[in-house]
Amino acid sequence: MKAHKLTLSAATLLIVMTCSFAHAQNAPAPAAGDGPNAPAAQNPRDGYMPLDDGAKQSATDKSATVAGVEPSSAVAFRTFSAGAGLTLFRWTVTTHGNIIRLESPAGFEHLGTGSRGEGYAVSMNTAIGIVRYFDAGYVEGAGCAGNVRSWSPVVFETGLSAAGTTLIRDTCDGVWRLTQTFSRNAINHELTVSMSLRNLTIFNYPSVRLDRYFDGDLDGDILDDTYSRTLDAVAGQDGILDNLSLTAISFNVPHSTAIHSFGGWVPSITNQASLGSPVGPGDFVGRVSYLLNTINSGAAKTAKVLYKRQ
Length: 310
What we know:
By secondary structure, this protein is an all-beta fold. Helices cover 0% and strands 49% of the residues. It has a single domain, classed as Distorted Sandwich (Beta-galactosidase, Chain A, domain 5), CATH 2.70.98.10. The strands form 4 sheets. It has an 11-stranded antiparallel beta sheet with strand order 2-1-11-12-13-14-22-18-17-16-20, with no helix packed on it. It is globular.
C-alpha cells in the first residue's frame, strides 16, 4: 500500500513523497394511489431548477471572510462517483479532508453552494485553557500559538480505492494526528467518515473533543431548508425533495448533535450550543460533537459519522 504526501502551490498539487501506512476501514417515492384508474406517478423533481433559483441565493454572502481565521488553502483533490441519473452518488474531497461536493441524484448538489463549509474541529484542555484546531473547508485556523491553531499543510494519502480514500494530517504543533477514512455505500447513498485522533506527545490531554459539521445547502440553493436533530443525528431537508443527514455511529462514545444558523456558526469551537429543533426555513449548519475524554500519550481514539442522502 502506498501513501502520497500532498503539498499545495499557487496552482498545482504535487505528489512529492511516498511512504507506507497501515490503517483500518431508500426512501420510496410518495404513493400516487392504487388501482387501474390511478393517475400516472409524477416525479416531484420535474420542473425544479435549483441552480437557477436566484431568489433563494440572493440574501446571505456565504463567501464572506470570518475574523481571526485565514481562508483555507484546500482544493478539490479526488472525486468519487457511482451510478447515473436517479441513482447517482458523487462526492468530492479536498486535499485537507473536507467534503466540498455531494451530488445525488444527478443535478442535485447539497454542499457546493457558496462557502463549501464542511469539516472538523479538535479541542483539549491545557495549562493555557482550551486549545482548538479546526478546518471548515472555506476557512481554517491560522498560526501555531495561542488558543486557536492551524493544521499542517502537509497531508498524506493512503488506502485509495474506487470507494474512497484515507487522508492523514497532523496539527501544526505536532500534538495530534487525524486520520480520516472516507468510504461510500453508493446503493444506500451513504458516505462514512472514520476519524482517528492520535496523541503524538509525551503528555496526557483531558477533555478532548472531536467535531464534524456541514453547511448543507440542499438541492443547490439556500434559505429554504429546514433542519431537525435527534440525540444521534442532525438533518437538513429541502421541501419534499432531498434530505441530507449527519449521524454519529460510534454509539458507545459520548456525543451530542447541534443546529446552527450559518451566521451564528462558530467553526473554530467544539460542542457549540444548538438552536431549537426543528428550525427553518433558512440557512443552517449541522454538527456532531464527540467527547473523547482523556487521550494518553501515544494513544488514539476513533469516532465515526455517516452522511446519508434520502
